[in-house]
Amino acid sequence: MVREKDICWEYAEKLDGNKVRCKFCSRVLNGGISRLKHHLSRLPSKGVNPCAKVRDDVTDRVRSILSAKDDAKESPPVTYKTPPPPPPPETKPLSAPLEAVSSASRLFPSILLPAPSCPNPNAQEIAERSISLFFFENKVDFGVARSSSYHQMVDAIAKCGPGFVAPSAPSLKTEWLDSLKSEITLQLKEVEKEWSTTGCTVVAEAWTDNKSRALINFFVSSPSRTSFHKSVDASSYFKNTKSLADLFDSMIQDIGQEHIVQIIMDNNFSYTGISNHILQNYASIFVSPCASQCLNMILEEFSKVDWVNQCILQAQVITRFVYNNSSVLDLMKKVTGGQDIIRSGVSRSVSSFLSLQAMMKQKARLKQMFNSPEYSLSTHANKPQSMSCVGILEDNDFWRAVEESVAISEPILKVLREVSGGKPAVGSIYELMWRAKESIRTYYIMDENKHKVFSDIVDTKWCDHLHSPLHAAAAFLNPSIQYNPEIKFLTSLKENFFKVLEKLLPTSDLRRDITNQIFTFTRAKGMFGCNLAMEARETVSPGLWWEQFGDSAPVLQRVAIRILSQVCSGYSLERQWSTFQQIQWERRNKIEREMLNNLAYVNQNLKLGRVTTLETDPIALEDIDMMSEWVEEAENPSPAQWLDRFGSALDSGGDLNTRQFGGAIFGATDHNIFGL
């Protein structure tokens, strides 16, 4: 289509040649408007990376355009003058659940019975209705419709044609689960081959409750990807150092001590004594804190500062009013072009500062909306809550507080994004924190009192929770830091760098010539000083830089690659503890437990594999958390509670999966099982 006629040009900027720039994420694409459409559709096709910032309404619009274009290439859609005859019962077609008398159909017969036949049924409408019924009956989260696997499934079924027979429940639980587990295991075996060169990081994350129950999940991370290893119920011995030591010893043996560079533990292990056991018994393994947890604690302390907390509470008055009145929400979306004024993040404090950023961007439009004739004539305009919102929006002190909150939180959020993306960041954490502190100092250069409040919070958490010798050594070996004249903290890294070298090269034979090699590196001699190496200092990842240009210092090269190939956080891993609670704590036989462990293994590794391929914001959630304090008043009931009233009726008479998972999806405290 020519530019003047293709409506998708409103989402792109024309560049030289056949290049276009996406207006949502600013990515430059080769291939013109066609490639842009696949980029905005977020469908896994044409080798185009999906857009991480496009609005849902735009995605839906573009998908409909692509779908219409595909339909035009095929024969016209089939229509029937009379409903097609039902297939023989033994074929068990995909539509069978709609015709079966399910537990849900007994409760809602008028809703779940097949639609009455009409003279010319529309195939597209019938398919959409069937999919909708599947979502509603099984309480599937609507966000699943955005997943690439959902669209791959629909496309695969469409290509099979009318004769497709869906896999049965027993087939899913046995043949297909075992097959996919084997497939994933083989893929991970390929990843393990790099461990001999890069080493790996074991991430141990614990979950505890007030009933003294404890779960520990183990993940393994290396440059290629992060993988889920296993989940363990440690309730009976979580505070017993000897038993925990046996568990970690077993884990280390599973992976191989020679491969593990560090073990990252979250704060739940702070008082268990396990760190000392590892450091005393495994000379070459480091124990490091979770950088993301520390950064989240910094943001949490920021949000507790009086004027910041007051700013957040005032902003929540506005968002609760808007998101609890559909006509006001519709008007807000109209004024902002479909943009939200709330963003949900990986933690409460992250959500607060991301939401303040979103509100700041829509400041003028929010004021415009509340002052518009359309709003003034609405039934909401004279409500006390509306008047409170107007008062806050017209308060300059409020907007100054929002601006300040955004300014002091953004440097920390930037660091959090870098360390939470699942990529090796251990060589960058020192510089990132230094730049974050400099940003806050510069912002408050005329207000030393405020600067001290926030810098003290950062320094305290950094020294008490995040500072690690491995981080210091990685910073020293990072070429973008080592050769940067602006960096002033290099000297302070040397002591920890030498301690790390002594730990990784424990004998004099291993350390032979290491002093000369350090000199060669720090003075940029040999290959370190060639033009290619100098040009790549800022553009190539530190581990890859050493692999390419470190041959002039072979011993130091091996050490540098192992150190710089590590992550410094486990926070990007999805914490769906309800999944593991059901596996470990519900009474079940050996076969059921094995099946659920396999299911967790497949589910977690599929999700972690998807995280490494999609360019999304690692600290923000795709959907707004409608249960958060930014939307719902604390005393209001859950919007899903009406479903819980029918829990036992919906699940009675069902098979094993229905009984296990039906009630937990909308539990009061649990997250959605397997992301559904």
UniProtKB/TrEMBL annotation:
GO cellular component, one term: nucleus
Principal subcellular localization: nucleus
Annotated BED-type domain residues: 3-58
Location relative to the cell: Nucleus
Pro residues: compositionally biased ranges: 82-91
Taxonomic superkingdom: Eukaryota
GO molecular function, one term: zinc ion binding
Keyword DNA repair (UniProt): no
Region span, Disordered: 66-96
Keywords carried by this UniProt record: DNA-binding, Metal-binding, Nucleus, Zinc, Zinc-finger
PANTHER family to which the protein is assigned, alphabetical: HAT TRANSPOSON SUPERFAMILY, OSJNBA0013A04.12 PROTEIN
Protein name: BED-type domain-containing protein
UniProt source species: Noccaea caerulescens
